[in-house]
Description:
Shape: globular
Largest sheet: 7 strands, mixed
Structural class: alpha+beta
Number of helices: 9
Oligomer: single chain
Distance between the termini: 29 Å
Amino acid sequence: MVGTANASTNAPSDASIVVVKGSQKALAVTTDCNSRYVYADPHKGGQIAVAEAARNIVCSGGEPVAITNCLNFGNPYDPEVYYQFVHAIQGMGEACRKFNTPVTGGNVSFYNQSPDGPVYPTPTIGMLGVLDIMDQRITLDFKNNGDLIYLVGRSYNDISSSEYLHKLVGVELSPAPHFNLEEEHRLQAAITKLNAAGLIQSAHDVSEGGLFVTLLESAMAGKSGFDVHTNKAFRKDAYLFGESQSRVVVTVSPADKEKFESLLHGLVDASATSVRFELLGTVKGDGMIVDGENWGATADWKVKYDTAIENHL
Length: 313
């Protein structure tokens, strides 16, 4: 919009940041929905749409405050479509109450279908967040060689509904990925506390494409590389490309390693459940090393990433 002060042009973040003129505050805005998840499980998919939007706000340094929505479905007189609609709304409502993000408006679009059938159910969430001061802002780009790369959140042997399973393996239909609302809430609270303590250099949530794509996007934005190892307790494809929710990649200065780990160890709720985290490796050079294997130069991957659509067309 002409005249707004977009703060996202010099460094990207999971949500777009807009400065409020005449104030120290800023707004964080994002839209999210993975229709494949909603088709696989309308209730869980509706929850994930809200949760991922909130995760994007938190990973950008903001506090989620409200949502609007654009609910896109097929013919509601079709019992299957009506089922999708009802359960997606129920899931969205539960997530909104959990994250304290009231629905301030929205719209419903039915009859989105062709002779081939209805569209995948797509309850798109637009979420607003607030940063009290711009110093709270977090960007997703890797900052310094030698910074430690952590995965905050619990990993699972889960490739369900992932781009990897759909595009590379060729399995169109599978269950929704792992998601637990309480687990997500604990993760977001942990990221907020780490940011308030000044212990993270960058944050980027694991979503479409899985962990490897998250690492790649942060490396491309920072014009750097990384050297990481996978967790041998998991299938390598599930660990790198699975889309189980409630995970965030953060970078930490080596000087803050002890404080960072100590803070996360101390985040134990009444059920004695802590927030899991793993040290993946370091920001290093301009290439991508995974388990000692060279996966290529970041710059070469960035060319493919930036030109994929035009090359396809």
